[in-house]
Amino acid sequence: MNRTSASASAAFAFVLIMGGVNLFADVTYEGGGSINGQFMGSLGATAAAVSITAGAGEFLGYALRSVSGYFADRTGRYWTITFAGYAINLLAVPAMALVSSWQAAALLIILERVGRAFRKPTVEAMLSYTTGKLGRGWVYAVNNAMDETGAMIGPLAMAAILFFHGDYRIGFGALIVPAALALATLGVARIRFPTPSDLAEENTAPAGEFTRAYWISMLAGACFAAGLMSFELVSYHLSKSKAFGEEWIPVLLALSTACGIGASLVFGKLFDRHEMPVVTTAVMLSSLFSPLVFFGGFWLVLIGMLLWGVGYATQDSLLKALIAQLLPEGRRSLAFGLFYAGYGAGWLVGSLIAAFLYERSLIALVAFAIVIQLAAIPIFWSAQRSMRPRSD
Fold first, then answer.
1. How does pLDDT run across 24-60, given as a tens digit for each residue?
2. How far is CA 390 from CA 211, 213, 259, 325, 326, in A?
């Protein structure tokens, strides 16, 4: 009993340390992300260029995770791949301070997403070893809450810099500090937990091939992703429509992120008791963000952005918890990577459609976003039903 308690304590310590890494990492790239759209616009980019850049970055950031996951499982070099991914992911952001064209900025935005692709499957797979002791919903909720805390601090820091200096480049340059702190904290995790698989209970993941439920869940995730628009497009719209002053747009992102933190913790705790009703509620709430953001005044936009934060909390906690029960043992990183590849494909298709519709019909854009996200709900339920005959 003492040993179990110590093991659970060690598992939670690992979750917290990796949460700290992600907190500093999110200060960095979410801080940068909160001004990417406006910065590209100031360099002459169009709405289509901003949306396509964001969509291409997200697609590569998800699609390449299957490659990263495969090599991680094949070589066993989880920590090496994780360090390389974080370094690329984080250092691309302060480098934005040096660019002079929107094309160069777009390249760095995509590079940042590629770095994230390298490290994401290994981190999620390492965290999955703690779920047997702590609960799937709770592990990913705690990690995501810390992640999102950084995502709230970053935009607030950018808002303060814009308020006092009015300079995007100073904002990007300042993000070298949290980037360095993230890499240092990652070093602590590597020293304390050289083999995270030691934290696992027996049979926390099924052996064998990928199940039908896994592939159906991937399709549902792709539908959800297609309707969850990037903040680059949202911030571009808010900037062009003059709904908010430039310096207040990062604050709006911070508020939506704060809502996401609360949603992650509440939904994560409830998920371990009532899986699908919680997922259904979260997806329905997320689907309501687009009409409020694109058609509302100040207060409706604010409510819409809070619901957008719920959508990102769903993506970063509930979807991971759902897929964590479907990971084949010995192929966890690949399983996360493939799932993210499908999710990224949905994101890319959604971004391309959003780029096309934004300039032509906001009504059509909003209708698409609502319908495609709600379509994910019956597909998620279908995945759950397909699991039942397999459980014994």
1. 999 999 899 888 888 998 899 887 888 788 878 877 8
2. 9, 10, 37, 13, 11
What are the C-alpha distances in Å from 352 to residues 43, 54, 158, 358?
A: 21, 10, 28, 10
Q: For residue 195, what are its two tokens?
A: 């083999």
**pLDDT category of residue 262 using cuts at 50, 70 and 90:** confident
Q: Which domains does the chain have, with CATH numbers?
A: 2-193+206-390 (1.20.1250.20)
pTM here is: 0.73
Which tokens belong to 45? 């980019």
Helices (H), the chain: 2-42, 47-75, 78-91, 102-128, 131-134, 136-164, 168-174, 176-192, 212-226, 231-241, 249-271, 275-287, 289-295, 298-313, 319-324, 332-358, 362-387
Rounded distance, CA 178 to CA 25, Å?
7
Using CA atoms in the order 319, 322, 323, 324, what is the torsion angle rounded to 10 degrees?
Answer: 120
Distance CA 92, CA 253 (A): 21
pLDDT on residue 208: 59
